[in-house]
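Supplementary Methods. Inverse-folding protocol.

Structures were first reduced to a C-alpha coordinate string of length 231. This string, shown here, constituted the complete conditioning input.
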Protein backbone atom coordinates (compact mmCIF):
# COMPACT_ATOMS: atom_id res chain seq x y z
CA UNK A 1 0.00 0.00 0.00
CA UNK A 2 1.29 3.45 -0.89
CA UNK A 3 2.31 5.66 2.00
CA UNK A 4 -0.04 8.64 2.41
CA UNK A 5 2.69 10.95 3.70
CA UNK A 6 4.78 10.25 0.62
CA UNK A 7 1.80 10.91 -1.62
CA UNK A 8 1.41 14.26 0.11
CA UNK A 9 5.09 15.01 -0.52
CA UNK A 10 4.71 14.11 -4.21
CA UNK A 11 1.63 16.32 -4.52
CA UNK A 12 3.45 19.22 -2.90
CA UNK A 13 6.52 18.81 -5.11
CA UNK A 14 4.39 18.74 -8.25
CA UNK A 15 2.42 21.84 -7.23
CA UNK A 16 5.54 23.70 -6.02
CA UNK A 17 7.64 22.74 -9.06
CA UNK A 18 10.78 21.90 -7.15
CA UNK A 19 11.98 19.89 -4.17
CA UNK A 20 13.36 22.96 -2.45
CA UNK A 21 10.03 24.81 -2.67
CA UNK A 22 8.15 21.73 -1.51
CA UNK A 23 10.53 21.32 1.42
CA UNK A 24 9.83 24.91 2.47
CA UNK A 25 6.05 24.39 2.29
CA UNK A 26 6.21 21.16 4.27
CA UNK A 27 8.82 22.38 6.77
CA UNK A 28 11.06 19.49 5.68
CA UNK A 29 14.66 19.50 4.62
CA UNK A 30 15.31 19.00 0.88
CA UNK A 31 17.06 15.75 1.80
CA UNK A 32 13.94 14.47 3.61
CA UNK A 33 11.78 15.33 0.59
CA UNK A 34 14.18 13.47 -1.70
CA UNK A 35 14.16 10.42 0.57
CA UNK A 36 10.34 10.33 0.69
CA UNK A 37 10.14 10.52 -3.10
CA UNK A 38 12.76 7.81 -3.58
CA UNK A 39 10.83 5.52 -1.21
CA UNK A 40 7.57 6.28 -3.04
CA UNK A 41 9.13 5.39 -6.39
CA UNK A 42 10.28 2.09 -4.92
CA UNK A 43 6.75 1.39 -3.67
CA UNK A 44 5.23 2.33 -7.03
CA UNK A 45 7.87 0.46 -9.03
CA UNK A 46 8.11 3.27 -11.63
CA UNK A 47 9.77 6.63 -12.04
CA UNK A 48 7.51 9.46 -10.89
CA UNK A 49 9.52 12.68 -11.47
CA UNK A 50 11.87 14.03 -14.12
CA UNK A 51 14.20 17.02 -14.12
CA UNK A 52 13.21 20.15 -16.00
CA UNK A 53 15.81 22.89 -15.73
CA UNK A 54 16.20 23.65 -12.02
CA UNK A 55 12.89 22.08 -11.15
CA UNK A 56 11.01 18.81 -11.54
CA UNK A 57 7.75 17.69 -13.07
CA UNK A 58 5.77 14.45 -12.92
CA UNK A 59 6.46 11.86 -15.56
CA UNK A 60 3.85 11.88 -18.28
CA UNK A 61 2.14 8.66 -17.22
CA UNK A 62 2.83 7.32 -13.73
CA UNK A 63 3.92 10.57 -12.09
CA UNK A 64 0.97 12.59 -13.31
CA UNK A 65 -1.48 9.77 -12.51
CA UNK A 66 -0.18 9.23 -8.99
CA UNK A 67 -0.06 12.95 -8.24
CA UNK A 68 -3.68 13.40 -9.33
CA UNK A 69 -4.88 10.33 -7.47
CA UNK A 70 -2.88 11.39 -4.44
CA UNK A 71 -4.60 14.79 -4.47
CA UNK A 72 -7.99 13.07 -4.55
CA UNK A 73 -7.07 10.78 -1.65
CA UNK A 74 -5.75 13.69 0.40
CA UNK A 75 -8.89 15.75 -0.28
CA UNK A 76 -11.15 12.87 0.76
CA UNK A 77 -9.14 12.31 3.91
CA UNK A 78 -9.33 16.01 4.76
CA UNK A 79 -13.11 15.91 4.23
CA UNK A 80 -13.39 12.85 6.48
CA UNK A 81 -11.35 14.54 9.20
CA UNK A 82 -13.52 17.66 8.96
CA UNK A 83 -16.70 15.58 9.18
CA UNK A 84 -15.38 13.79 12.27
CA UNK A 85 -14.48 17.12 13.84
CA UNK A 86 -18.02 18.34 13.18
CA UNK A 87 -19.45 15.23 14.82
CA UNK A 88 -17.23 15.63 17.87
CA UNK A 89 -18.27 19.24 18.36
CA UNK A 90 -21.93 18.67 17.52
CA UNK A 91 -21.85 20.84 14.38
CA UNK A 92 -23.19 18.07 12.17
CA UNK A 93 -24.68 14.62 12.29
CA UNK A 94 -28.13 13.11 12.48
CA UNK A 95 -30.53 13.23 15.44
CA UNK A 96 -33.38 10.72 15.31
CA UNK A 97 -36.16 11.66 17.71
CA UNK A 98 -39.44 9.90 18.45
CA UNK A 99 -42.23 11.46 20.50
CA UNK A 100 -45.91 11.06 21.34
CA UNK A 101 -48.57 13.46 20.06
CA UNK A 102 -48.93 15.67 23.15
CA UNK A 103 -45.18 16.20 23.39
CA UNK A 104 -45.02 16.96 19.68
CA UNK A 105 -47.55 19.73 20.10
CA UNK A 106 -46.04 21.28 23.22
CA UNK A 107 -42.37 21.17 24.18
CA UNK A 108 -40.76 19.45 21.18
CA UNK A 109 -40.97 22.55 18.89
CA UNK A 110 -39.22 24.98 21.32
CA UNK A 111 -36.65 22.32 22.21
CA UNK A 112 -35.84 21.79 18.54
CA UNK A 113 -35.59 25.54 18.00
CA UNK A 114 -32.88 25.68 20.66
CA UNK A 115 -31.16 22.63 19.15
CA UNK A 116 -31.21 24.24 15.68
CA UNK A 117 -29.67 27.39 17.09
CA UNK A 118 -26.78 25.42 18.58
CA UNK A 119 -26.37 22.86 15.76
CA UNK A 120 -27.58 24.47 12.52
CA UNK A 121 -25.96 21.86 10.27
CA UNK A 122 -27.34 18.78 12.02
CA UNK A 123 -29.98 16.70 10.24
CA UNK A 124 -33.20 15.81 12.00
CA UNK A 125 -35.28 12.65 11.65
CA UNK A 126 -38.51 13.32 13.54
CA UNK A 127 -41.47 10.97 13.83
CA UNK A 128 -44.48 10.68 16.09
CA UNK A 129 -44.46 7.31 17.83
CA UNK A 130 -46.34 6.27 20.93
CA UNK A 131 -44.59 4.53 23.81
CA UNK A 132 -43.58 1.80 24.27
CA UNK A 133 -42.79 1.64 20.52
CA UNK A 134 -40.62 4.75 20.75
CA UNK A 135 -38.66 3.20 23.62
CA UNK A 136 -38.22 0.02 21.60
CA UNK A 137 -36.88 2.13 18.70
CA UNK A 138 -34.15 3.58 20.91
CA UNK A 139 -33.28 0.19 22.33
CA UNK A 140 -33.01 -1.28 18.80
CA UNK A 141 -30.77 1.55 17.61
CA UNK A 142 -33.45 2.90 15.26
CA UNK A 143 -33.73 6.20 17.17
CA UNK A 144 -31.37 8.26 19.31
CA UNK A 145 -33.86 9.72 21.73
CA UNK A 146 -37.51 9.23 22.62
CA UNK A 147 -39.91 11.38 24.59
CA UNK A 148 -42.13 8.90 26.35
CA UNK A 149 -44.16 8.30 29.45
CA UNK A 150 -41.79 6.81 32.01
CA UNK A 151 -42.67 3.18 32.75
CA UNK A 152 -43.56 2.21 36.28
CA UNK A 153 -40.82 0.86 38.52
CA UNK A 154 -40.06 -2.80 37.86
CA UNK A 155 -41.42 -2.68 34.31
CA UNK A 156 -39.30 -4.44 31.66
CA UNK A 157 -39.39 -1.20 29.67
CA UNK A 158 -37.78 0.62 32.59
CA UNK A 159 -35.08 -1.94 33.33
CA UNK A 160 -33.60 -2.22 29.85
CA UNK A 161 -30.31 -0.39 30.22
CA UNK A 162 -31.55 2.88 28.73
CA UNK A 163 -30.86 6.26 30.32
CA UNK A 164 -34.05 7.97 31.53
CA UNK A 165 -34.15 11.73 32.20
CA UNK A 166 -37.24 13.21 33.84
CA UNK A 167 -38.56 16.24 31.93
CA UNK A 168 -41.71 17.02 33.91
CA UNK A 169 -44.47 15.63 36.10
CA UNK A 170 -47.94 15.31 34.60
CA UNK A 171 -50.75 16.52 36.83
CA UNK A 172 -54.00 14.57 37.16
CA UNK A 173 -57.32 16.16 38.03
CA UNK A 174 -60.35 14.29 39.35
CA UNK A 175 -63.51 15.47 37.57
CA UNK A 176 -66.58 14.97 39.71
CA UNK A 177 -70.30 15.78 39.39
CA UNK A 178 -71.14 19.27 40.67
CA UNK A 179 -73.13 17.86 43.57
CA UNK A 180 -70.50 15.30 44.64
CA UNK A 181 -69.58 15.42 48.38
CA UNK A 182 -65.85 15.83 47.57
CA UNK A 183 -66.23 18.84 45.27
CA UNK A 184 -65.58 21.45 47.97
CA UNK A 185 -62.51 19.77 49.45
CA UNK A 186 -59.92 21.18 47.01
CA UNK A 187 -57.18 18.55 47.05
CA UNK A 188 -58.60 15.04 47.16
CA UNK A 189 -56.71 12.06 48.56
CA UNK A 190 -56.70 8.96 46.37
CA UNK A 191 -58.08 6.91 49.22
CA UNK A 192 -61.22 9.07 49.16
CA UNK A 193 -61.87 7.89 45.60
CA UNK A 194 -61.63 4.17 46.28
CA UNK A 195 -65.35 3.54 45.87
CA UNK A 196 -65.82 5.79 42.85
CA UNK A 197 -66.46 4.63 39.30
CA UNK A 198 -64.10 5.89 36.60
CA UNK A 199 -64.11 6.93 32.98
CA UNK A 200 -60.75 6.29 31.31
CA UNK A 201 -59.84 7.51 27.83
CA UNK A 202 -56.55 5.56 27.70
CA UNK A 203 -56.24 2.18 25.95
CA UNK A 204 -55.93 -0.80 28.28
CA UNK A 205 -53.13 -1.44 28.94
CA UNK A 206 -51.07 1.66 28.13
CA UNK A 207 -48.17 3.49 29.81
CA UNK A 208 -50.50 6.20 31.15
CA UNK A 209 -53.11 3.76 32.45
CA UNK A 210 -50.40 1.62 34.08
CA UNK A 211 -48.98 4.65 35.88
CA UNK A 212 -52.44 5.64 37.12
CA UNK A 213 -53.24 2.13 38.30
CA UNK A 214 -49.89 1.69 40.04
CA UNK A 215 -50.28 5.09 41.73
CA UNK A 216 -53.66 4.06 43.14
CA UNK A 217 -52.23 0.76 44.35
CA UNK A 218 -49.14 2.32 45.93
CA UNK A 219 -50.87 5.29 47.57
CA UNK A 220 -54.23 3.84 48.56
CA UNK A 221 -54.13 0.09 48.02
CA UNK A 222 -56.89 -0.24 45.44
CA UNK A 223 -57.47 -0.38 41.68
CA UNK A 224 -59.89 2.08 40.09
CA UNK A 225 -63.24 0.71 38.93
CA UNK A 226 -63.27 1.67 35.25
CA UNK A 227 -66.83 1.39 33.93
CA UNK A 228 -66.24 3.29 30.70
CA UNK A 229 -62.93 3.12 28.88
CA UNK A 230 -61.16 3.21 25.54
CA UNK A 231 -62.07 0.38 23.17
Amino acid sequence: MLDLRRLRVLSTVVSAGSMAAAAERLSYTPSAVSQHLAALEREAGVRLLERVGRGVRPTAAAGRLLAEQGDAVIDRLAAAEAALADLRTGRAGLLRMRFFATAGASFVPPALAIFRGRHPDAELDLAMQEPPDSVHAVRAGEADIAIAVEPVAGSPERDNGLCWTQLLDDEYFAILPANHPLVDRGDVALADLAQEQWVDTEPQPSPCSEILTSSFAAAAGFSPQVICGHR
